[in-house]
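Onboarding guide, step 5: your first structure request.
Type a short instruction followed by the sequence, for example:

Predict the 3D structure of this protein.
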Amino acid sequence: MSPRPRLYLFLAGIAGLVACYLWAFGGMPAFGHYPGPYGPAILRAAIAQTHATGVVSAVNFEYRGFDTVGEEFILFTAAAGLSVVLRRLRGEREGGRAIPDADNSNKRTTSAAVRVPALLLAGPTVLVGWWLASHAQTNPSGGFQGGVVLATAFVLVYLSGEFLAFRRLSPVALLDAVEAIGAAGFAAVGLTAVIMGLPYLYNFIPLGQIPGAVSSGGVIPVISFFVGLEVAAAFTAIIGEFLEQTLLVRRGA
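The system replies with structure tokens like these:
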């Protein structure tokens, strides 16, 4: 198919998607007028049942935890699929990776106005991401948000012109292992409940004495931690694969 028909097909698909979104938005209730019974019921019961004041995280990791497992593995599969495709395009072989010579050539185009703030913000970004991933039970945060922020810290290192440092801080083998641990850890929490004779992802850890405390929430902070690991590793791996592929293209490989 030539580029022009592909463009027309793409525009037709986008037009259909926009039409469906507008149709869906037109049927939504007005802001503050939620008609369903589930939201108010969860708001009344969530804190007492989970000791988590971050009710959104309680919903994600407990009330609809099985759906969240599926969402996490969608990201895991996407990252794995992208890595397999791009690494094969770069000529990866068993026992080694065909990586281009890294030369930090992008330093020539990185101004001090970008380099200095990026390096200064990398550390605080890691701190914020870790806080978000570890406080899902207390605040509107969680592993998904925290993982994305943690991955952003690695992007800041790259934006500062330090491609070699980015690669050293995010080796492929380590990222793959962390991503697998995060995804498997989430599933293992649910399987542990099953082994104990409880429903999958049942909150079997003590909830803590004080609702909203860091030590409260039972399995919610544990799941959020594993989700943060998986999301951070997946996004960092995806970004790294794209950067290496871009470097190969720029060098004419």
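Each response can be followed by summary notes, for example: Confidence is low (pLDDT under 50) at residues 93-107.
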